[in-house]
């Protein structure tokens, strides 16, 4: 499995470290990413023209990959705007205020609901459902929108996705690569997922409470939270109280029907997201026609435009970053130029090279699998590198044992880093639905996730 690293690999790694440093310093990284794309293009093609073209092509690729997420966020925002301005959201969330009375209850309640939902449907559609319903309640009881985004993100894209016990997409990939039964990898992952989840979410909550008390908490708001509290104002769009009550019942029932359809027809991922998005569009049209009467047709267009403007305003700064990180995968050959001979993607090559330079024992193997998982997660997918983690775990396990634990550890590290808790563009759904900066969300997650990875790796050392 040895791979010869070239200047292409080292330059990519250098820019990764530079980008991470800029995020820690709270500086924008778009310029760094564009320069990184250009530098990689020059190294791979020796052509300035091709390198410059590669910048634009990589942007197009990133937009194509992100367009589904952009649209679901945009239509949810459009729907939320009309619900807020008519006051329907006030009626809809009123019963929930009986159960969620404090910021702590909001944080843990949103997180647990998000985790359960994400086990069945994966996190992206879960964010849309939960954000639209529970975010207004959380904001009203004092939980910052960024805190709600942290809860949805850590419990959904972190805990639920790293275990993936219902859909079993992640453990299937790692188990196949490690030559193990899926059930064995899933069983081995339970203590690791539990430790990682408890440590990370508890640390994030403690740090948030500490900073709120000190007055140093940055809310990270980039706009009014799309599903946020309207403060009881309907913005001059009157609606009969009886009609608002009826719609406040019908709208949640429609989304519950979506959940039933997902279960009945086994809709997951993009299919589940599309169902929720289509339902949100129909709700937007129906409520707008009822609220605006003769102006309903024009008002529907206005709300859609407003939602799309919000979506692209939030996603715009992320597209160049996504473009850079996508180059770490096999997309490089299509967008920029030929990869080195025998390469399976820059990020995967770096992971293989790391695994080939360490001694074989339980402790070092655990640290290596965490590092390999984290490195392969840097492309922002989380899933692209977990097969590599399984292969390396199989290699190490042949010498030190504990192949199932090492496989699960690599899976947990890859998905927590790349599945949507640290890479800014990967955690866009939670950030956008809460109206906060994805970069600020990534900064809030950084220390808790790193502490969680350290503790989880220590636990894995004793289990190997």
TrEMBL record:
Keyword Protease included in the entry's annotation: no
Q: Which domain of life is it from?
A: Bacteria
Q: Does the keyword Transmembrane apply?
A: yes
- Residues passing through the membrane, by range: 6-24, 31-60, 66-84, 104-121, 127-143, 150-168, 188-208, 246-266, 272-291, 303-327, 413-434, 446-463
Q: Which UniProt keywords apply?
A: Membrane, Transmembrane, Transmembrane helix
What is the name of this protein?
Transporter
Q: What's the source species' lineage?
A: Bacteria, Bacillati, Bacillota, Bacilli, Bacillales
């Amino acid at each position: 499995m040895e791979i010869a690293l070239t200047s292409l690999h080292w330059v990519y790694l250098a820019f990764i470290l530079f980008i991470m440093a800029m995020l820690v310093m709270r500086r924008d990284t778009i310029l760094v990413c564009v320069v990184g794309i250009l530098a990689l293009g020059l190294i791979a093609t020796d052509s300035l023209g091709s390198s410059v073209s590669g910048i634009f092509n990589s942007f197009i690729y990133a937009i194509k990959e992100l367009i589904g997420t952009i649209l679901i966020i945009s239509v949810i925002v459009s729907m939320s705007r009309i619900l807020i301005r008519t006051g329907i959201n006030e009626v809809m969330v009123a019963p929930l205020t009986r159960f969620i009375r404090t910021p702590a209850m909001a944080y843990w309640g949103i997180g647990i609901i998000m985790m359960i939902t994400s086990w069945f449907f994966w996190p992206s559609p879960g964010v849309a459902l939960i954000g639209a319903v529970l975010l207004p309640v959380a904001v009203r009881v004092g939980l910052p929108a960024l805190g709600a985004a942290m809860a949805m993100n850590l419990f959904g894209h972190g805990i639920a996705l790293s275990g993936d016990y219902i859909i079993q997409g992640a453990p299937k990939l790692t188990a196949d690569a490690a030559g193990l039964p899926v059930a064995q990898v899933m069983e081995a992952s339970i203590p690791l997922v539990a430790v990682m989840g408890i440590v990370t979410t508890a640390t994030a909550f403690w740090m948030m409470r500490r900073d709120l008390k000190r007055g140093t908490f940055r809310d990270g708001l980039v706009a009014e939270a799309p599903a946020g509290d309207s403060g009881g104002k309907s913005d001059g769009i009157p609606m009969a109280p009886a009609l608002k009550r009826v719609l406040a019942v019908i709208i949640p029932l429609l989304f519950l029907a979506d959940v039933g359809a997902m279960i009945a027809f086994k809709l997951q991922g993009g299919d589940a997201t599309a169902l929720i998005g289509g339902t949100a569009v129909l709700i937007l049209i129906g409520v707008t026609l009822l609220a605006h009467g003769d102006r309903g047709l024009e008002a529907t267009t206005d709300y859609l435009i407003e939602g799309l403007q919000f979506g692209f305003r939030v996603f715009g700064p992320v597209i160049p970053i996504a473009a850079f990180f996508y180059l770490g995968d096999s997309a490089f050959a299509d967008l920029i130029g030929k990869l080195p001979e025998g390469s399976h993607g820059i990020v995967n090559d770096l992971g293989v090279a790391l695994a080939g330079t360490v001694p074989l024992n339980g402790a070092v193997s655990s640290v290596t699998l965490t590092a390999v998982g984290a490195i392969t997660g840097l492309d922002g997918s989380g899933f692209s590198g977990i097969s590599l983690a399984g292969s390396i775990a199989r290699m190490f396990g042949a010498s030190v044992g504990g192949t199932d634990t090492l496989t699960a550890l690599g899976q947990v590290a890859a998905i927590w880093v790349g599945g949507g808790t640290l890479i800014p563009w990967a955690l866009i759904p939670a950030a956008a639905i809460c109206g906060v900066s994805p970069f600020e969300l990534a900064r809030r997650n950084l220390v808790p996730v790193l502490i969680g990875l350290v503790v989880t790796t220590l636990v894995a050392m004793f289990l190997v």
